Amino acid sequence: MAFITLVSAKSSGVTCSALALALAAPKRTLLAECDPAGGSIRTGYLQGRGTTASIGLHRLAAADRTGTLPEVFEQHLVSFDEAGNRLLLPGLTDPAQASSLAGTWDALHRLMRVMEEDAFDVIVDAGRVVVESSARLNAVSSPAVLLRRSDLVLLVVRGNAPSLTAAAPVVKTIREDLDRHGTGSGALGLLLIEDGPYKASEISAQLGVPVIAALPFDPDTADALTVGGKVRGRFAMTSLMRAGRSAHEPITVAATRRRAQLDPRPSPIPTEEVSHV
Q: 8: which of 14, 145, 187, 190 fits an S-S bond (Cβ 3.0–4.6 Å)?
């Protein structure tokens, strides 16, 4: 199994990408909306179905303070496919709630690792990284613990000049933070949204980070994932969802290779795959 965190330098489609990867994954997947700026899947893609304001990330800091977090954690997970193979931890409903989570990220990481041990891939939407004066990630502006302990950190970029310009200082920040406080900068990779003239090889050379996988620029499907609604034809056969299925292998291989470098013990036998949406 794998623990993957997605981040961006600016609004580059992190949530949409994370949701596409989770829906297209051939394995059971937990998607955790951990963006301090707030979550959007509850009111966007799900359009309020199957979830209420009484559950989600914003409730877990209080549970942690009362010592009940391990007992209630799974009560705050929502199934977002019919078979129950994809679970969502809905995000904050107000950015002002982010500061209360500063001391809770470590406990949340441990609980998500338990889900991983129970044959779930874990995808974390950590939102936008705010570059500050030091290379250390701020515990409020980013869920730093999750980045530092991920098998793979994927910076979502678009293939255009504004996105790459914004990404450059963030690459430097994440690299230095992972080297100082995490498992090393080798955990950092790129997830490319093919929106712009620059190819994967050019982007990798410019930023000095490998492009692990790419997703097409598919506005109709992205809109359905962002605000809900339907697309023409079969949703699973859209270019974005097909690419999401294809991206699973290189992302998993990179995460597994990274974990093996840090812990060379034999990996567990893979579990049976599940059907995708």
A: 14
